[in-house]
Amino acid sequence: MESILVLTHVDETGAALTRASREAVTAGLALASRMAASLAIGIGAVDATNAATAVGASGARLLATSGEAFGQARYATDAAACEALCRAVNATIVLAPGSSRFMRVAAGVVQRLGGVIDTHVLSLGSGKSIDAGRWFYRQRIEAVLSRDVRPWILLLAPGTHAPFSGECGSTEVEIVHVEEPVTRTTVTGVRTPPKDAQTIRPDAAMLFVAGAGWTKKQPDGQVHAGEAGELILGFINAAGASLGSSKSLVDQGSDGQPVLPFLTHMNQIGQTGATPRHAKGLATCCHGEEPHVVGWRFIGERRAISLDPNCGWARGKADVVYVADAFKVMARVNADLASRKA
Ligand SMILES: Cc1cc2nc3c(=O)[nH]c(=O)nc-3n(C[C@H](O)[C@H](O)[C@H](O)COP(=O)(O)OP(=O)(O)OC[C@H]3O[C@@H](n4cnc5c(N)ncnc54)[C@H](O)[C@@H]3O)c2cc1C
Known about the structure:
Blueprint: E1 3-9, H1 19-35, E2 38-44, H2 49-55, E3 61-64, H3 75-88, E4 93-97, H4 100-113, E5 116-121, E6 132-136, E7 141-145, E8 152-156, E9 173-175, E10 206-210, H5 225-239, E11 242-245, H6 247-251, E12 278-284, H7 290-293, E13 299-306, E14 320-323, H8 326-341
Parallel strand pairs: 1-2, 1-4, 2-3, 3-9, 4-8, 5-8, 10-11, 10-12, 12-13, 13-14
Antiparallel strand pairs: 6-7
Helix pairs in contact: 3-4, 5-8
């Protein structure tokens, strides 16, 4: 019988489990019930009380590390904690969120345990075996993997499962003793840019894409890059959306054309850019060419605003296309958002 362990960690508050961790709990519950396997949840935190309460209703065995050293994201301590939790339950299958924190240590942990690992896992199959689904080669090839070697660590791509949200239950947490490893890194604090400086927001419900049209000559014969920047930032900050871009727009900086200073190649969506996951997407001033639209593979509902009624979006790539001036539409949308907030 498989022994399934879900590894989780807390967010920057130090108390609540991350959304991706709660998604891994959902995946673990479904897998354990399908395979009639035992399920344990391992929590990495200084004090796991709060986090354990949030998953107490899962009915799983709860284990946690404890101690100041395990509060910070640091290779030596995170790897030691994950290894100890895996050994404590003799885990054969380990599910964990594909967060930057676990992506950094999971390969090292599996090396210590003599097992195997797969990353970017989207699904675990539905039959009596574990069939891990993932994409390769920039989302062009979809593969299903099964393995005999144990333990097998599967890092789940965030956004692929519903986060666990059971009623808070009474909880009994087993504290796993972890020998504190020698550390060279002392975390003295965390410095992050202000919230509105970060335009790439993987957890946002909506993706807003800016295309090259924003910095092209408009019907009055003038370029309105400054106004474009204000409208775009105004919208993504008011709506809490994530900002994507077409390649043409982010390439313009190197071509000496008008630029939007807050965009970098990190914002680029498409074949040579990112393939983010959001429930909704709105493309503006963007033509909707195939190399761009392939990056929309995981966007649920797609809408576009373009002056061109023959743009790619209008040819079946969007659910709704507004043939309109994005400057006017977004000014109106921003005004509506502001009046709702007031
Ligand atoms: C190998 C390869 C890889 C590529 N990879 C990528 C990739 O990863 N991502 C990517 O994006 N592209 C990629 N491209 C480029 C892609 O083919 C397109 O050239 C690019 O997406 C076009 O960007 P755009 O739609 O913003 O600009 P444009 O094609 O210039 O379109 C601008 C649009 O804005 C509209 N517009 C202008 N003013 C307004 C207004 N006021 N209101 C509304 N609409 C307006 C215009 O009508 C036009 O349709 C790749 C190309 C190749 C060859």
